[in-house]
């Protein structure tokens, strides 16, 4: 088995179309088909089901794809490590990011790392939580951030930041009559929430908050980005549930935030690492994480843009 077999397999697995995969690889379709056949013969399994109408992965093919992707990630990391060493870096820290991490905190953390340990190269990987957990076990990442402490055996999840959960409401919405909005009132309106495939840990924490009410949420849309969520809320499409620090950086006009009635629910960000990790570089990184302060709080009931303009003035 050679790397060319794996590259051809990934191209077909991602395109699910032999002609497009061949075009992507800049080869003819016939040698591509032969390469896939050679790979299947060596493995002793069928990787694809190919008909006149479509091409799809078999169960074995899907499993093989996960392993092959990890092979190429490891190769890329090896390549980058060699380049970093040639450019004067003498260490590397691979940090996985899942469920979103407050941009202001991330920039502060990276700046602090660069100031205190410039010889250590930090590489960031924005991936789903499940992939991060597998990658930590497989030594593809050294440390990670996510919004779940359900990480299984062999990993440690330490709470590092907790942020108040707020209701994001379109301007001139009836709920703005409340200073603090009851959860039951929120659930009478459509919601736009994060896609659980992208923000698994975030979704788990939001779901726990929603279960405090006997009402079922009306989910109008699932989105994979905070910016799209804000755009939909600003357009009056739905309400949203967001953490306070994200609202301090939002530039979307027409969105007002209110706290929930009662004690504000907190969404927690966890730092994930292997139990047996003894790296001093990682220990120093964790110490820096613990020094990062909370971003400036947003006053409830004020639009994010208005708050920022007042802060500047």
From TrEMBL:
GO terms for cellular component: protein-DNA complex. Gene3D superfamilies: Periplasmic binding protein-like II, Winged helix-like DNA-binding domain superfamily/Winged helix DNA-binding domain. Transmembrane segments: none annotated. Signal peptide: none annotated. Residues 1-58 form the HTH lysR-type domain. InterPro entries: LysR_HTH_N, LysR_subst-bd, WH-like_DNA-bd_sf, WH_DNA-bd_sf. Keywords: DNA-binding, Transcription, Transcription regulation. The keyword DNA-binding applies. The keyword Transcription applies. GO terms for molecular function: DNA binding; DNA-binding transcription factor activity. PROSITE patterns: HTH_LYSR. Belongs to the LysR transcriptional regulatory family. This is LysR substrate-binding domain-containing protein. It comes from Alcaligenes phenolicus. The lineage of its organism: Bacteria, Pseudomonadati, Pseudomonadota, Betaproteobacteria, Burkholderiales.
